[in-house]
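To close the chapter, one final illustration. This time we ask the reader to focus less on the individual chains and more on the assembly as a whole: which components sit near each other, and how the overall shape emerges from the parts.
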Amino acid sequence: MIKITLIGSGNVAQHLIKAFEKSAFIELTEVFSRKKETLENLLDSNKITTDFANLKEADLYIIAVTDDAINDVSKQIPFRDKLVVHTSGTSSIDTLDNKNRKGVFYPLQTFSKNKAVDFSVVPICLEAENKDDYNILEIVASSISNEVFEISSKQRKALHVSAVFVSNFTNHLYQIGHEICNEHQVPFEILKPLIQETADKIKTLNPNEAQTGPAKRNDIGTIEAHLAFITNDNQKNIYKILTQSIQNNGKKL
Amino acid sequence: MIKITLIGSGNVAQHLIKAFEKSAFIELTEVFSRKKETLENLLDSNKITTDFANLKEADLYIIAVTDDAINDVSKQIPFRDKLVVHTSGTSSIDTLDNKNRKGVFYPLQTFSKNKAVDFSVVPICLEAENKDDYNILEIVASSISNEVFEISSKQRKALHVSAVFVSNFTNHLYQIGHEICNEHQVPFEILKPLIQETADKIKTLNPNEAQTGPAKRNDIGTIEAHLAFITNDNQKNIYKILTQSIQNNGKKL
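The assembled structure is written out below.
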């Protein structure tokens, strides 16, 4: 059994708690949360601490907090020479304080509070300073996921930026679609199979092959009709810029 | 059996041919294609014509061609008072020539040549000038799909604009993610579960609830780090505009 202490109570922390609690190889020794109540529906109350001074010894400390807080939290761990990792896609391994052995345990998925996640298909990107520490992280990651990758800090940054495009920005485009449907009294439901199919296509086609639509066809009439139809300036601007980007596909502007 | 003549040989036409050929209620009498070869792998050669003058009588004529060509094609149909529909999301019902009864048969899905589509879950948006014609379209649509909707020309325009955002533009964001991964030698595969989950979340959460990421959290440090990391000016511009749009969410700019 690998003993893990988790620090954090946000979306990532909560989904990790659920995944670790199911794993036969992991003992979730303790979780640090600023407010005990946040986690009481997930965990025995005696496993939650609100005081860094009370942290128990463990094989691995996982810091799942906002990027800005990682360095400060890593300093507050009251031990030396322990394996301490963060879960951030964007922070370097060196954000962690030097007093402990450093690593990264980055689950590349979008976590929402009200939506369960099947962790077995969540890619986990690992980084460590030496082979022994990497092996520990690999055992932990493999105990909750089938998709484990060794990824450097630079590669992780590229992945995180890409993830913002394919997930956060994509979801925002769903929201714009939702707003346009609402404005014209059309059920957004009608678009859901299209959203699924657009994502499904990427399993078998590369995005360039999968591209369709008026911008791809260079169908100026439809593009102009759409721009005339959209009443919101922000939506209009996004429509123009993404259309242009598709039309200029491949060229560096 | 409802007799259908299809005019067109592009993605939509080809997927409709496959769907109609499977239906027990539809007899696909004839398909018009400018080049016979385009459809010979889908259809008996004697069912394909390249000459409008040869078109046989049918209960329904479906024009599945580019928007610009709909009006011209509708004029070339050598009959009067037949039910003639187009499959466009963006053209009005009045794009069709007046000599025949007009309608719209718009399957709201993204069709790629190399990817099969399960038509039973494709929403089909119908419009007709009278109840009898609507009933014919409804029988045809219901014979290939479980999702049939009566949608006016104005509503269809809103749906089509929304579809461009949630599908064409989304796919372009996948492509940008793909480019960034390639540039930094990271396998794009790692992002595929995230792409699926982002689409899956929309089944149960509305897009506003589902929104995550640095823009939503207003995490300026990460946003600035990402902008510094992105080398392509076009990608950088799209990152900025979509981030700002998420930050200003709900406000009309």
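The longest helix of chain B spans residues 153-183. Residues 156-247 of chain B form a domain with the N-(1-d-carboxylethyl)-l-norvaline Dehydrogenase; domain 2 fold (CATH 1.10.1040.20). With these observations in hand, you are ready for the problems at the end of the chapter.
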